[in-house]
């Protein structure tokens, strides 16, 4: 037994040394960042902004791969099954990385299938309407929706996405019944709202603020405790008479379970440098998005957010069944 334990210890030490050597050389080739939605949506835009700056720290390009479908579950299945070598990572949010476990209870992955790297952005949810919708403000909209239950349709980026959660949170807070229309990303949903094919969208400020500013759609409310500097005329939920509507979200980076801690540390450091750069802060400001504070950048902070939001959205979604 003593001989066996000694061999086991030697093997473990050798494995650790090998992993450390690989981590020291990492990365030797491009890294793939999987985005769970179509190009043009919030997660995609944030991923590209952050990846561009992380590339400078890592010395290798980060290639964005958009894998849409099943509210992000298709992409995260692929990410969970990838080699845990640091060359495949994914960006997720409260929808894809927390609520999805209630929406799709038979997923081939669990929260433990991933190692958190870092929170990279804080986002704000907005409800916006087609520009000719017959409601001047939030209270008008709620009154209209109550008189026409199920007839108002709001688009989102797919069941399980953060935009879907904005819709569900808004519907719950307002006490209304609307028809939710899922798309393969935020961009096609917004396109249909602009074209008048749907009544409006639940979206992140990062992807809908420009359309509001250009008067292609009209902003109804932002689920935030502060007004957005890029949309100063858009009322926050408490000002609009619906303080229960809260839609402040996050985007974070994840790696497959088993990725060596030293590689996670390198990725975390690159993400931290990226979101603290003036280039990313300026771009985020233009997108009505906020970079995390210094005390929010440790990988364990993202892990705690996932745990919190799994419970939070299980409660919300099971109440609405």
UniProtKB/TrEMBL annotation:
SUPFAM superfamilies associated with the record: Periplasmic binding protein-like II (SSF53850)
Identification of the protein by name: Tripartite-type tricarboxylate transporter receptor subunit TctC
Keyword annotations from UniProtKB, A to Z: Receptor, Signal
Family from the record: Belongs to the UPF0065 (bug) family.
Signal sequence residues: 1-23
Top-level taxon of the source organism: Bacteria
């Amino acid at each position: 037994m003593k001989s066996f334990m000694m061999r086991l210890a030697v093997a473990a030490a050798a494995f650790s040394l090998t992993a450390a050597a690989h981590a020291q050389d990492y990365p030797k080739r491009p890294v793939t960042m999987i985005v769970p939605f179509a190009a043009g949506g919030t997660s995609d835009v944030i991923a590209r902004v952050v990846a561009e700056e992380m590339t400078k720290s890592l010395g290798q390009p980060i290639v964005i791969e958009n894998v849409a479908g099943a509210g992000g579950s298709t992409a995260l299945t692929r990410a969970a099954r990838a080699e845990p070598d640091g060359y495949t990572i994914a960006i997720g949010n409260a929808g894809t990385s927390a609520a999805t476990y209630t929406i799709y209870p038979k997923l081939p992955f669990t929260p433990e299938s991933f190692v958190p790297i870092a929170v990279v952005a804080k986002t704000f949810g907005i409800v916006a309407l087609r520009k000719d919708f017959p409601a001047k403000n939030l209270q008008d909209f709620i009154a209209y929706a109550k008189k026409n239950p199920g007839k108002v349709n709001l688009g989102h980026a797919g069941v399980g996405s953060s935009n879907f959660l904005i819709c569900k949170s808004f519907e719950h807070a307002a006490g209304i019944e609307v028809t939710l229309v899922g798309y393969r990303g935020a961009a096609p949903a917004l396109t249909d709202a602009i074209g008048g094919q749907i009544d409006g969208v639940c979206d992140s400020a990062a992807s809908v603020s420009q359309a509001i500013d250009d008067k292609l759609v009209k902003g109804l409310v932002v689920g935030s405790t502060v007004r957005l500097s890029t949309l100063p005329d858009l009322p926050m939920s408490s000002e609009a008479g619906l303080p229960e509507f809260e839609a402040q979200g996050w985007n974070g980076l994840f790696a497959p379970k088993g990725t060596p801690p030293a590689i996670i540390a390198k990725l975390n450091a690159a993400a931290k440098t990226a979101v603290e750069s003036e280039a990313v802060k300026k771009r985020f400001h233009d997108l009505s998005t906020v970079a995390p504070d210094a005390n929010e950048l440790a990988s364990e902070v993202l892990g705690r957010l996932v745990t919190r939001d799994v419970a939070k959205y299980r409660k919300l979604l099971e109440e609405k069944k």
